[in-house]
Amino acid sequence: MKPLPPADYLGCPITVALAEESGVQLRAPRWSLWDSWIMLGGALVLAAIVAVTLHLFGAPRVIVILLGTLAPWAMLAGWPMLATRMRGNGPVIDLGIRLTWRDLGIGVLGGVVSLAVAAGLAGLSTLIFGDFTSSAGDVAAELSDSAGRPVIVLFAFLLAFGAPVVEELAFRGLVFAGLRKHGYSPGLTIVLSAVVFSLFHFEPARILVVGGVGLVLGFLRWRTGSLGAGMVAHSVNNLPAAVLVAAGLAG
């Protein structure tokens, strides 16, 4: 049987080293890259089950849209936390959940860079695919037709602050750590995690945009060794769209 990598495997989050320095007895994590595929597949299945069930029971359109959109989050955030807690040292240590003032500053700068990258790639994508919208904008537009202002504001809040936390736990957390733990180089890990991040959004016209943002976020995860800067950058990247949604300018 192949021995498990130690808790401080090459490329592990900085939180592992900090825990060791503080005297915490760490165990070799038994979660693996397979947990990433379980997480992603489970998110898709859960979203489909919730959407179909709500539709069959005649739930209001706004409920179907919201819960169908948010249901995958239960797996995207829940599985990384459960897998690392049950078969590792917990999500804080194994996934690198940390936010310092330095991470905050780097995150804001990274968010501005990601917006610039996204804008440039959006222009290129328009030349290739023509005019396009985002799935979040489409959902917000549907909500505008069937929901009140509080629901719109709630969706904007989730877009700006909920999605960044959930998606960083999933893609720069479990996927990124799983690739590094499996022995992939930093560069390849950044690229592959960005590809998975982009494909999982299921938006062909925005694949370059989302992939470019994923590269920036993956770079931040590598350079800081934790998720804090990426979460901040992701929020900064989503904030303009969230403001437009809250202002009723969806799409």
Structure notes:
It is built from eleven helices and no strands. The protein has 251 residues and is an all-alpha fold. Helix 6 (101-129) packs antiparallel against helix 10 (207-224) and helix 10 packs antiparallel against helix 11 (228-246). The protein is globular and about 55 Å long. The relative contact order is 0.16. The mean pLDDT is 92.
Q: In summary, what is this structure?
A:
The chain is an all-alpha fold and 251 residues long. The protein has helices at 14-21, 34-56, 61-70, 72-87, 91-95, 101-129, 135-146, 149-181, 186-200, 207-224, 228-246.
List keywords for this structure.
mainly alpha; single chain; 11 helices; 251 residues
What order do the SSEs take from the amino end to the carboxyl end, as H and E? HHHHHHHHHHH
> What is the percent of helical residues?
over 70%
What structural class should be given to the helix and strand makeup? mainly alpha
Number of domains: 1
What's the total helix number? 11
State the distance separating the first and last CA atoms.
53 Å
**Uncertain spans:** none
Number of strands: 0
User: What global shape is seen?
Assistant: globular
Fraction of residues in β-strands: under 5%
Query: Can you give the mean pLDDT?
Result: 92
**Main β-sheet, in a few words?**
none
Global Rg: 19 Å
